[in-house]
Structures are given as C-alpha cells and as structure tokens.
Amino acid sequence: MSSVSPVTAALARYDATQPSVRAFLSLNRDDALAQAAASAARVAAGQSLGPLEGEPVALKDNIAVLGQPLTCASRILENFVSPYDATVSTKLKAAGAVLFGRCNLDEFAMGSTTESSAFHKTCNPWDLTRSPGGSSGGSAAAVASGVVRFALGSDTGGSIRQPAHYCGVVGLKPTYGLVSRFGLAAYASSLDQIGPIARTVDDVALLLSVIAGADTAHDSTSRAPAVLPDYRAAAAQSVAGLRVGVPKEYFAEGLSPDVRAATTAALEKLRAAGATLVDVSLPHSPYAIATYYIIATAEASSNLSRYDGIRYTKRAKDFGGEDSDNASLVDLYFKSRGQGFGEEVKRRIILGTYVLSSGYYDAYYLRAQKVRKLIQRDYLEALKDVDVLAGPVAPDTAPLLGEKSDDPLAQYLSDIHTVGVNLAGLPALSVPCGRSRTGLPIGLQLIGKPFGEPEILRAAAGVERDSGLKGLIAPSASR
Fold first, then answer.
1. What residues have CB less than 8 Å from 464, skipping those under 6 apart?
2. CB-count exposure of residue 228 (10 Å: 0-12, 13-18, 19+)
3. What is the reported pTM?
4. Residues annotated as catalytic (active site), given as ranges
5. Of 23, 27, 293, 478, whose CB has the highest number of CB atoms within 10 Å?
6. How many Å apart are CA 197 and CA 136, to the nearest integer?
7. pLDDT digits over 52-106, tens only?
C-alpha cells in the first residue's frame, strides 16, 4: 500500500466511530493528508524511512504539536494553538509518523472517566453506555475503536493504564524521566509521564523506542540509559525463568470477582509458561491514594496558576460575561478562572492551595512527601528478588457513564492500584488478560524496576500470547 493508505483508512474509521465514541476533540483532515503525501514522496524518492513511516499517531490534547490546538479539554484554552512541538512530537515527525488528531481527556488530565472534559464525553468502544476511563480515555478509545494503531497519552496516577484496562488495549507508563515532558501541559510535574498506547505489546514497544531518550536540553528531569535497550526484542523473549512478584495488598477486599478471576488466571498462565510467582508485600499501599491526592493537587494548584485570563488564555469577557478591562486584578482572576475551569479542576486547585497554605504545609504536604518515600521503598524492596510485580489495574471494569462523575471520592478510589507507581517513579503497563461475564475488557498490571521496561514488555507479551485477545478492535457501532 502507499503511505497515504493508512491515513485514508484512519479518516474513514474516524467518520464511522466519532459520532458514537467521540474519542477526538479535533482533527485537521487536510493537514493529515498533507503529512501522508509528504511521507509518500519520501518513499517514492527512495529516502531513508523512519520506523513509523506513514503511520497515523493520535495525541492526547495536552501534548503540544506546532500549529495544532492545545486545549487540555478546557474552556480556558479553547482557542489556544501551540506555537511549538513537544519533544515527543518532534521525535514522531522524525520517525515519519503522521500526527493525527487531538484526543479527548479529562480537563487538564484531572479525572478517571473523561467526563470532566469541557467539550464532550467519550464513550467506551466496547459498550457505549460506559466510560473509557481517564484521563487518557480519548487516546485509548481511538486505538480500541480502530481509528489509529498508535496513540500517546499521559499518566499522572494511572491515566494511561486505567483507560487501557477499560478499553482492552495495551498502555505503558514509562519510568519517570525516560520520555521527555517538554511540551506536555503540566498537571503534577513530579508525577506526569507521557507514554504509548496500542493494541499489541510489540506496537507499544515500537512506539516507546521512538519517543524514549534523554532530553536534557528541554527537560531537567529527563534521564535515560546511555544506550536504549531493544524494546521489541525484549518483548519477543520467552517468559521462562521470569520471576513475578504478586503483592498481597492488590488482591484485598474490594476487588470485583471478575477482575480477581481474570488476573489470577493470567498469573497462572504465566506460571505455566515457565515464570515463577512470588508472594510479596507493599505495606504502605493503603496510604497511596491520600498521599497521591495531596501531592498531585498541591502541584496542580501551582502549575495551573499560569492560566490567569491575561496572557494566553480566555478572560471573563470572552465567556460572555461583563467586560473586565476596568476590573481589579483579583476580580479579573476570579471571573476568568471561575468560568474557564470546570468543577473538578477547581476542586483540585482549592485542595492543593489548602495543603500548601500556612499552618497546613507541614501537616499535609510535607508528611505526604515522607510517606511517598516509604511507598517508593516498598516497591524497590519488593522488586529486589523479582523481575516484575503483577496485579490488577483497577478494582472493577469500566463504569457506566455518570456512575462516578458525581462522587469524587469513588472516582479517586478507582486509582488505588495505579497511583503508587507514579509516586515511586516506576514503569508499569496494562495488558488485556480477560473479559468480564458481560464481555468488558480486563487488564493485568505489570510493574518494573527503574528503566525495567524490557522486563515488563517481556512479561506482557507472555500474557498476550496466551490470552487470545491480541490486537482486538472494539465494535464501536455508530448510533
């Protein structure tokens, strides 16, 4: 096929699924076709081709692409167009990829259902009455519905792995620093990480090999091995001899029977394939949710202070309110941010400002940082004698739309098995391992040592080989 064919196929699938799934916030058809034509010209000229030549890659709408919208699914950035490329965008272009559309997300990546988007809700391609997860729900849904083979999301507390689990795709949160955060709209800077989403482990490994690597010129937290491993080769290895730690805390009360059964069966298949299962403990896991939401909201309140209604965001009068040219500065801030931000974002800003305020900093934020260190030590101790840890991604399968949007605490608790990984800065992946009794996807979470992506890809490929679920596309029926 020509280099234009994958893009025209993606556009056709977009037309068939967008009315029902609504995975995207925007798509520039002419630009996508122009990128495809440029790829076809490189092929015709016999030029050296990139590993993603002509392949459409969808990006979560908090990752900068020159000349494309960057809304973070928020009204306050509704008209903003990025003046530069994120490092991952630059690397994708160098690899020959076609940057295809902007995927929906929870506003500023704050949420677990993609329902806090200011523009529309995304539906799960396996059941349109259910959530695709969040905050990278649009990216996961775009892959699951067959629009694109590759997508990028961001993971602050499970925002790649949880949607991958709900949508039946593979999603990887890399080691903190392995993929540059330059050009990612910040939510919580010490937790955020860009990562790949695809329908197969090999495709995730391929996409990771393109976007990984140190970027010290733009990202002071960037770090990576001097020579990156061959991620695809690692995924092709047998799981024989692999030691898999199973944290007992991940199988405690609150885990649904379907998720428990599917993850347990996947672990037994790994054992049958030659892996060794080892019981381990993460004793500080019960404190992970509280620790995460103190640190994440504190960093969010600081990061989102730049959206003030003055510099590059919409201001009060742009929302149809009173003209604010003569208003006081505080009044301008209050009206612009009050109308520009959604309820969940405002909730987290207020929480973060509170825990950083005088008199509460030591009691909340400082203590949370100390507990964070204990959680990190738990993971590193558990990983001393094993290659990877394995367990569920979330306590249940995809919830109904609206089921958790009015109950923030229930929504936060859906991240109970994922947030600890971000606090510890470790790599983790969700790979499809089974189905619920109603046919909904279930993923197995695999957690590795720092820069242990080869081991978790190896384990994930082993799960994938025995699952019978490799590369499945959801029905995504239009309605």
1. 170, 200, 201, 431, 432, 470
2. middle
3. 0.96
4. 60, 135, 159
5. 23
6. 10
7. 999 999 999 999 999 999 999 999 999 999 999 999 999 999 999 999 999 999 9
